[in-house]
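Aim 2, interim progress: modelling of the zinc ion-bound target.
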Amino acid sequence: MTGSGITVFIDRDGTMNVNLPFPNVNSPEKLEIIPGAAKGLRILNDLGCLAIVVTNQAGIDNPENELDWGTFEKVSERFRQLVMDEAGAWVDDVFCCPHEKTALCGCRKPETGLYMMAKEKYPSIDFARSFIVGDREDDIIAGKRLGIKTVLVMTGHGEDTLEKLTDTEFMPDYIVSDFYAAAIKIREVQNDKM
Ligand SMILES: [Mg+2]
Ligand SMILES: [Zn+2]
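Predicted structure of the complex, ligand included:
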């Protein structure tokens, strides 16, 4: 692992790209990066963070949704292309749960399976020195379960999520306007520690 030894687990839909109603982002052309998100990612890259996308894509297992692993990979490729073109930014890896909620799998957020898979692949990941950035309670609850610092963005479902989590034990550690602001916040928190 490089640099800071910090890992940032990044939600995709509603955090990095514009959230779409069902059937979601089921083709590369539908992917639209939220303004500033690519620049924010580049800030994390420059900090030496490991940047890992963690995403629920129940559409893959839903026969009514034109999404399969091949299409998901194409969307991921387009994602990498767009953030690289815009800001020279990159993600180090992508972990995806394809299951529907009813499958009760261990990897659909807020379950912790995807994060554990990431840690297995990159053993130097230290949850206590990591961040989760996301727009839904699933992201925040997973972070609380693993002892990962949580950053809630106000894009996507962020405002609804804040309302749901306020006055609960799952209050996020940081609340920011968008992914760019999340990256600035992470850099700030990090600099304070050094
Ligand atoms: Mg999301
Ligand atoms: Zn799953």
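The helical segments are 37-47, 69-87, 113-121, 137-146, 158-165, 179-193. The mean pLDDT is 95.
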